[in-house]
Amino acid sequence: MKKILVAEDSSVIQNLTKKILTLQNFQITSVKNGEQVLQKLNEESFDLILMDINMPVMDGIECTKKVRNLSDEAKKNIPIVAITGNARNYTMEEFLANGINDFIPKPLNFDQLVEKVRKYTS
């Protein structure tokens, strides 16, 4: 079973994402900010990170940069898909330059979510 780390400060989006992806047989771990992402990565491995861009404590861009600088080869190369309500503020080039593989705009389209998760975990 593929393991997904969901970094999202909105409980509503976290819960919906968890429900949708659990139904698709993914194992979901949820955290509220970038600092917690790094803590979780320290404890276990994941197949994909769904990363909200605007989070308290440490945002998604800063967190992604830190993930990409980890010493563990497998962990530093985990696919990261940004979830953002401000996709217009970033170009795909900017996401890629910061180490983000792809993005899903908010409000979330759950078919698109499942499709992207499958793409990066298959």
UniProtKB/TrEMBL annotation:
Domain of life: Bacteria
UniProt-listed Gene3D superfamilies: 3.40.50.2300
This protein's record includes keyword Phosphoprotein: yes
Positions of post-translational 4-aspartylphosphate modification: 52
SMART domains tied to this protein: REC
InterPro entries in alphabetical order: CheY-like_superfamily (IPR011006), Sig_transdc_resp-reg_receiver (IPR001789)
Residue ranges of every copy of the Response regulatory domain listed in the record: 3-121
Pfam family, any one: Response_reg
Biological source species: Imperialibacter roseus
Protein name: Response regulator
Keyword annotations: Phosphoprotein, Two-component regulatory system
